[in-house]
Design a protein that fits this description.
It is a single chain. The chain is an alpha+beta fold. It is 58% helix and 7% strand. The protein has a 4-stranded mixed β-sheet. Strand 3 and strand 4 form a beta hairpin. The two termini are 49 Å apart.
Length: 290
């Protein structure tokens, strides 16, 4: 319950969010991928136990049973469209710990040199399988790591632009929102910075992506735009309110949302990373007051 202790985190709304997503299509191919990854993670434990049958504490057996049960349960929601095998990764620390404990028990109970030879051979085989199975994935992932380092100047500039906007407009509600952006840097990733300084985030593209796929009406998004729940939007430079869904390849925001946005907001300035869009109603109220 700790994540829901802040006053702006609602367990009730969290529950209703998942209620809205209960109609997400189930993908058989994703389920097969989940089963393959689960099997790959459990095979070292099963092999070690099947070949040497070590005497394990009952508490450890209950732990392994609960772990297998939890992994099995997660494979089903992880097969919904937009999910995937990465939802099983949080189990890796428990699996590694379980393997270390079992390996230690096996090493302590080896009766002779022949058994030790099998033990060392199995250990070597598992290491080789790990290197050949996961090595290429690790190597290829470094490309994205290096790309993140290349984006460091843009990230630094984006943070500076957000800080300037917050400092220059202390009385306004400021939020980082969706936009086409430029280059590989996803400027929406910085949307938490204004939130941590007390500003709202009425529209989150990635949450809306799943809701939109489940047929939720975009009236809730349009209302948030028309009511100017954000006084100053910081949108990635380029076309506003554009987020391409990785589920179907389309923009998650409809033409009606974009029309409402352009009717309600006006671009007041552009930076290297963000465009600033200010609510027209705020400008009108300022003019009347003047």
């Amino acid at each position: 319950m700790l994540p829901f202790s802040p006053n702006n985190a609602s367990l009730f709304e969290y529950f209703h969010y998942f209620q809205a997503l209960k109609h997400t299509p189930w993908d058989r191919w994703l389920f097969q991928e989940n089963i393959v990854l689960a099997a790959m993670c459990l095979v070292p434990l099963l092999l070690m136990y099947a070949l040497f049958t070590p005497k394990l504490p009952y508490a450890f057996k209950w732990f392994i049973g609960a772990l297998v049960l939890c992994i099995t349960i997660v494979t089903f929601p992880a097969a919904e469209r937009g999910s995937g095998p990465h939802h099983l990764l949080p189990f890796l620390p428990s699996l590694v710990w379980g393997f270390v404990v079992m390996r230690r028990e096996v090493a302590a109970s080896l009766p002779d040199h022949r058994a030790r030879g099998r033990y060392e051979g199995l250990s070597l085989g598992l290491i080789v399988a790990l290197l050949f199975g996961f090595g290429p994935i690790v190597v290829s992932s470094w490309d994205s790591v290096f790309q993140r380092f290349d984006d460091t100047p843009l990230v630094t500039e984006g943070i500076a632009e957000i800080d300037r906007a917050l400092d220059d407009h202390p009385g306004l509600r400021v939020a980082v929102g969706p936009g086409a952006g430029a280059g590989s840097f996803d400027a929406q990733a910085l949307r938490v910075i204004p939130v941590f300084r007390g500003n709202p985030l009425p529209i989150d593209s990635f949450s809306w992506m799943a809701s939109e796929m489940n047929g939720v009406s975009d009236e809730v998004v349009r209302r948030a735009v028309r009511e100017c729940r954000v006084d100053l939007w910081l949108l990635p430079t380029g076309a506003p309110f554009v987020t391409i869904s990785h589920l179907d390849g389309n923009n998650v925001f409809s033409a009606n949302v974009l029309a409402d946005f352009k009717a309600t907001y006006v671009k007041q300035m552009s930076g290297r990373v963000f465009d600033q869009w200010r609510c027209k109603r705020h400008d009108d109220d300022s003019g009347k007051a003047g």
